[in-house]
Structures
1.
Amino acid sequence: MSYMELFDKDIISQKFGNKPLLGLLLDDTYYEIDKKQLFFKKNDTLFHEDEAHEYIYIIESGLCEGSRQGHITQFSGKDEIVGMENMLENEVSSLTVKALEKTAVWRFSKSQVMSKLMYTQEGFLFLYQHMRTFNNDLLQKEALLLEDTKSRFLFVLSQLGKIYGEESQDQIRLPKIFTKKIIGNYLGITASHASYLCRQLESEGMLETNMNQIVVNKEVAMNLDIFA
């Protein structure tokens, strides 16, 4: 990588994101580390808050939630990293992470990952990119708190659908695992309030519920970027 490319955020995102990191950790060409592929059932816990754990995980398939004292603060899906925020080997986790559905992951030793990244010439950029994404997510959530509950609810539905669901020409379909109870927990509202908002938005033609799956009107979602 050239010196100037080190200052291009798009190049950094492309070359030092989660997929390139997984490729680096699985590559045993010059620095081999312990790795293991694991499979979790729904509601299985990867690690607990306030407890030290020695691993990071990269999700191969499935979906996990991260929570603190029972309140969901994040979701993690395919190619996303879990456990890297608390990178020191004896550092306790700030979150409890569990599988929301059947989930396959690659597990790596935190200390060995740190050693490999420090051994690699540009390894620190993987850590930089991860923390930049983590901080951007926190800033977005903080800005989201300034919006009214209805706007926050619809925006979160749209974002979760875009990231983890399916898009067609006219619709954004959330995975069925995103129930009103789970979304309400994530937003800090009750399940009954989430159900009320769904009914209200359905009556306004902004979304529909089909076989327990929430479907967002894509045209509405495209005009809802509150961070534009």
2.
Amino acid sequence: MMNQSFCLLLIISLLLNSCSVYQDKTIKVEKEINLEFPKMSEIKKDETSEKSKDKSLGYFWAVSENIYPYFSNHKFENPITFERPPNNFILKVDYFSDTKEDVKLKLYEWNYNEKIDTRREIFTDKFEEIKIFLSEKMGNPIFVKSEDFEKSKEETVRDDVKWKNKNLNAYLFRFKGREGFDQIRLALYKD
């Protein structure tokens, strides 16, 4: 009887822990997003100390003017890309710096982690957490647009939120696909 009670308690404990696994593996947004723009050499040091992997492509690539409209204002080095240690997401951060090592643009990208089986609810929670964090730091967004699967005929819909203040610009967007595709992106720049 004692063994049966112990086994039952053990099973219940394991089930309760497995239900909250995604919460335990989610890193708070305050630790993921740095609103400061240190020199590129400092960023490399910080990313390396956090055990991020350098995933840089080794050549220059740009993003659309919708995301960052100021590429023509600067002479850029090749972007440096770091992949943070995996948790519920695979988080990749791209840093665009000029020839003086001044970072002009940071792109964050949260993707599905196959080893964890990242569910849609986790993406929704993360997107909301980022929105709240940026609103607390930057004020109310200047633009918000949400697309609904039910009203859209597209396979993928997108939610967009933009902030602008005198010190920082942020553009947060999320892709949601009918086949389960989810991705969150955030562009931060000061221009």
3.
Amino acid sequence: MLHFDPTTTSGSAVASLFRAWCSLRDAGPARQPDTTELADAVEDMFACLGLDPSGPPAQVDPPGAVEAFTVFGLRYDRADALLVAGVIPGEHAVAAVELDGDELNFVRWADTYHAASGDAAAMAARAQVERGDY
């Protein structure tokens, strides 16, 4: 069972979110808050708790639930996309050797991610490339 304690940091954040929801709901007669307003309030709460709303889901996993994975693939520069070739456990990105050759708009990719699974590491790598953070 959940226990609400407004004296804790997370309880204070939940209380703040609840007050935001009440003010949105009570802004006018028969007015219902729209999803954008509610999503913004939740995002603000996450930021106040030190969470990055655009970050990986693994940031809320208990310590020890994440491990290092190295993602290998090809980055396609014309579409900001990453074609993942493989994911292996461990930090091996610094050991990756770039081979000579031209892949026509593709760049070899290797980076290490801390995630709960290989799939989560691959998703984080794709998201990083899609955002242009490489």
